[in-house]
Amino acid sequence: MPSHDVLIIGAGLAGQRAALAAANAGASVAIISKVHPVRSHSVAAAGGINAALNPEDSWESHAFDTVKGSDYLGDQDAIEIMCREAPDELLYLEHIGVTFHRSPDGHLGTRAFGGASAARTYYVADITGQAILHVLYEQLMKHHEQLDRYEEWFTTDLLQDEEGRCTGAICRNLRDGHLEVFNAKAVILASGGAGQAFKPTTNGLIVTGDGIAQAYRIGAKLMDMEMVQYHPTTLAGNGFLITEGARGEGAWLLNAGGERFMERYAPNKMELASRDVVSRAEQTEINEGRGFPDGTVFLDVTKVPRKRTLEALREIVNIGRDFAGVDITREPIKIRPGMHYIMGGVKTDSDGLTTIPGLYAAGEVACVSVHGGNRLGANSLLDTLIFGRRSGEHAAAQAKTMPMPTTAQSKVADVQRSIDAIIHREPGGRRVSAIKDELGTTMNQYCAVFRDAEGLATGYEIVRRLKEEAPKASIDDHGTVFNQDVIGAIELGYMLDVAETILVAAMERKESRGAQYRTDFPARNDDEWLKHIDISANGADEPKVDYSPVTITRWEPQERTY
Ligand SMILES: Cc1cc2nc3c(=O)[nH]c(=O)nc-3n(C[C@H](O)[C@H](O)[C@H](O)COP(=O)(O)OP(=O)(O)OC[C@H]3O[C@@H](n4cnc5c(N)ncnc54)[C@H](O)[C@@H]3O)c2cc1C
Fold it and tell me: What contacts 24+ positions apart, CB below 8 Å, involve 472-478?
């Protein structure tokens, strides 16, 4: 049985940064990923990472922008930590080899991002995530004597001892289908978000909420689950992202009448207001008949000098050409709000500790909560790195103080039985992909930019029905080698659990704040709802709702205008 001080599930930016920190602290580390680490979804991150590094900027300004962006739901102690530690983290990345853009005078270059009062987004063209991910992967190789990489292994379940402490996980080797127990003194979940529960989404096929559901199933609390971010600029149909970097470089939003409509919604910040504000503005234009008949508006990147676009936004030039047939350097492209990011996740403190002893979470799987009701663009990469590192350091220190636990093997037989049951299902039920399709379309219809009680209740009923149907969904592949059919069936269960918790939290919050806009409760209501909604399973059939206070250190809630 593989045994390590620290077991990290997920090898995106959060997982790799946690692994590096734990290895640097002397721990023996295992890092598991269901895909090759550099294919983790962090590779898609385009526009950049925030840090108040410029001497004229300050971490306090970054923190205030983040608090305001969160619509005052973010925990200010965690936000202070993130923004204070950001400049050192950015310099660390540069020193280990991330080739951040430099301006002609040799200084690190920045671009503006939404909701920020200063240009503080550092970037590598529009492949920032890829650049950082590859450098971290190279760094991990230096630690090969104490760090084992399990690439293309799929975690199915978290394990607990009799006292409820998390002591490891059960994982399936995708190459041959065999199951293994991984034993650990500390487990860090870094398994990313849950975008595939929506359709369309900017998130890749692997982003299926596995870690959120696995933690929820063993009793961990989830927090802020109702807060799902719709990004203002995604391609109609396939959901591909056009990075906020485009608006940061100067692109405009126009309705079908050619009007720069953000003047009416956010006259000071225009296209660079917070994402929730811009997405609502676009959707209002579309709903009130000022968009195009296919439910889109224009993003006009021709406002950016062509040379600059080709240098700094080359990936979206390719996306426009290949997936919309549009040369964005010469004509506007049709876009609309699309599901992008989940602010909620496994509730943690600022060292990544969850409500389950021995279990940490970092990155998009986690909710610290630094994003509250709405994440600012380029704050997610920062979140993955700061809280990935802090989790790795804390877990390594904890591991030094305890013996290796012994994990019971008995659970493996249960998991094997449930996988065999999937493989031997009677043919005839709907396919996994058909159920997933209905789930995604349902969430996008009833739990998107605008929500109301009736729609959310309808969505909830559909998800409950799909939860009953999913265990009967038939699969075609009965083999053991790279059986993605089996994995798809397991992932569907995770997505349904996550969707259910999102809907329950969205029904519960009877106000409008950040990404949760209730047309039946259109105002923010600090008296009753300046609090987090916590969701847990606790053995019940339906999610259990609790509340926890928002931590306010120095910024009292104010009216939020841009
Ligand atoms: C198109 C796009 C562009 C973006 N651009 C930006 C940007 O410019 N700036 C910014 O700040 N944010 C951006 N974001 C958001 C940001 O990229 C993500 O929030 C962040 O990268 C998530 O990192 P992570 O490490 O938490 O998860 P991921 O990178 O998604 O990694 C998850 C890891 O977990 C593994 N895993 C998952 N489930 C299992 C399982 N069951 N068993 C084993 N392994 C598992 C996966 O294999 C993977 O290694 C963007 C997001 C998208 C979709």
Answer: 472/425, 472/426, 472/429, 473/425, 473/429, 473/430, 473/431, 473/432, 473/434, 473/435, 474/425, 474/426, 474/427, 474/428, 474/429, 474/430, 474/431, 475/422, 475/423, 475/425, 475/431, 475/432, 478/423, 478/424
320-333 burial: b if 16+ Cβ within 10 Å, else e: beeebebebbeebb
Active site residue 509: no
**Residues enclosing ligand 1, CB less than 6 A?**
9-15, 32-35, 37, 40-42, 44-49, 128-129, 154-155, 190-192, 202-203, 206-207, 210-211, 241, 341, 363-365, 378-381, 384
pLDDT confidence of residue 232? 96
Q: Say whether 307 sits in a helix, a strand or coil.
A: helix
Residues 184, 39: Cα–Cα separation, whole Å: 25
DSSP-assigned letters across all residues of 323-357: HH---TTTS-EEEEEEEEEES-EEE--TT-B-SST
pLDDT at 137: 97
In 3-state terms, what secondary structure has residue 12? coil
d(CA 289, CA 429): 41
Where do the H-state alpha helices sit in 227-342? Answer: 245-248, 262-265, 275-287, 306-312, 314-324
Low-confidence ranges of the chain (pLDDT < 70): none
Locate 430 and state its tokens. 């709907």
Give the integer Cα–Cα distance in Å for 133 and 45: 10
Place of tokens 């990155």: 363
Alpha carbon 252 to its chain centroid, in Å, reads 26
Handedness of CA 241, 210, 153, 469 (dihedral sign): negative
Q: What is the pLDDT of residue 427?
A: 85
Query: In this predicted structure, what is the pLDDT of residue 55?
Result: 93
Pocket test for ligand 1, best of 20, 41, 173 (most atoms within 8 A of CB): 41
